[in-house]
């Protein structure tokens, strides 16, 4: 009997990952575009992986976070890593919807494309943000230098992630920040070799946790001091009512959950140790006087609905943003 693979094994999206997932209708549409392709590279598109597995198609997945039950995958950051060796008939990419990221991802994908292969790339609508239209024009001018391309408007639709539902509930101006639910798809056929564009500069390193469906992120500051957490400017208590990178106060965030709860943080080294002990991953040193009020941190974790002593459910990893 053929196994039916499901996307339900993925944790809830986290805001740091620009993780908006295709609807089932969009997955079927894109997979339909790949019907005559034999060897496929998926870049930042794990939503397509299980459907291709169900259809018995050969593919390799590139995503910076491990995706359960997908056999052929590389967990790397496209913005700073070397391209994957190989020649693929098709590459499907869903880069973060920013000009620098999209250009880098397309150039990265082109390095692994077979002659006469095709790149399928998502693209934001013109009303995504004030600069979106001009950014699209710059991308089109760049594409014309080395490829022929077509664009299918409103071809893609996305599910609303839970963290965004939280922001919508607490933000009366949410509709001014979120003006899209659909996206376009670019279909690129290169006619000359494209040079790999420079790496993208990452500003922060984050200690990441997956706990069942929940995700947590702790921004590393290398400070071995008594940890301190506080509310972020612009937050509603612990709730972050925004999705825009331009939102005032966003750069203050040092502790962030997939439920869009946030806090400022200083002293990440000891904070991670306290969190690890709470999760049952390790024990705190006997002399905990330099760790501050442990109980207050445990109360914080509990108020954020972080489960306690659940080491068997926890996966740790690192990301840069």
Report on the architecture of this protein.
It is a single chain. By secondary structure, the chain is of the alpha/beta class. It folds into two domains: 184 residues, 3-Layer(aba) Sandwich (Rossmann fold), CATH 3.40.50; 116 residues, no CATH class. The chain has eight helices and 13 strands. It has a seven-stranded mixed β-sheet with strand order 3-2-1-4-5-7-6, sandwiched between helices. The mean pLDDT is 93.
Structural topology:
Blueprint: H1 24-33, E1 39-43, H2 49-54, E2 58-62, E3 73-74, E4 88-93, H3 99-110, E5 113-123, H4 132-144, E6 147-157, H5 162-170, H6 174-177, E7 182-190, E8 205-211, E9 214-219, E10 228-230, E11 255-257, E12 262-266, H7 268-279, H8 294-303, E13 314-320
Parallel strand pairs: 1-2, 1-4, 2-3, 4-5
Antiparallel strand pairs: 5-7, 6-7, 8-9, 8-13, 9-11, 10-12, 11-12
Offer a concise description of the structure.
The protein is α/β, with parallel strands linked by helices. Helix content is 24%, strand content 25%. A seven-stranded mixed beta sheet has the order 3-2-1-4-5-7-6, sandwiched between helices. A six-stranded antiparallel beta sheet has the order 10-12-11-9-8-13, with helices on one face.
């Amino acid at each position: 009997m053929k196994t039916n693979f499901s996307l339900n094994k993925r944790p809830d999206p986290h805001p740091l990952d620009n993780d908006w997932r295709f609807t089932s209708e969009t997955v079927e549409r894109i997979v339909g575009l790949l019907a005559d392709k034999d060897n496929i590279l998926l870049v930042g598109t794990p939503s397509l992986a299980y459907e291709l597995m169900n259809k018995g198609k050969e593919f390799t997945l590139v995503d910076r976070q491990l995706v359960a039950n997908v056999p052929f995958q590389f967990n790397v950051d496209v913005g700073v890593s070397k391209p994957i060796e190989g020649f693929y008939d098709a590459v499907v990419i869903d880069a973060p919807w920013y000009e620098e990221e999209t250009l880098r991802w397309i150039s990265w994908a082109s390095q692994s494309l077979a002659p006469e292969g095709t790149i399928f790339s998502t693209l934001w609508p013109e009303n995504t943000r004030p600069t979106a239209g001009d950014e699209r024009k710059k991308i089109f001018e760049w594409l014309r230098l080395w490829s022929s391309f077509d664009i299918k408007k409103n071809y893609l639709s996305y599910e609303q992630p839970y963290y965004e539902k939280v922001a919508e509930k607490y933000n009366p101006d949410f509709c001014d920040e979120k003006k899209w639910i659909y996206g376009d798809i670019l279909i690129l056929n290169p006619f000359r070799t494209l040079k790999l564009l420079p790496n993208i500069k990452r500003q922060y390193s984050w200690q990441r946790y997956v706990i069942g469906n929940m995700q947590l992120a702790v921004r590393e500051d290398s400070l071995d001091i008594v940890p301190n957490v506080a509310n972020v400017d612009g937050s509603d208590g612990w709730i972050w009512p925004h999705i825009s990178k331009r939102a005032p106060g966003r750069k203050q965030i040092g502790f962030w959950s997939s439920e869009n709860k946030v806090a400022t943080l200083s002293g990440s080294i000891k904070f991670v140790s306290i969190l690890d002990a709470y999760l049952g991953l390790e024990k705190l040193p006997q002399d905990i006087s330099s760790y501050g009020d442990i109980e207050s941190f445990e109360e914080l974790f509990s108020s954020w609905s972080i489960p306690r002593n659940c080491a068997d459910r926890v996966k740790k990893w690192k990301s840069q943003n």
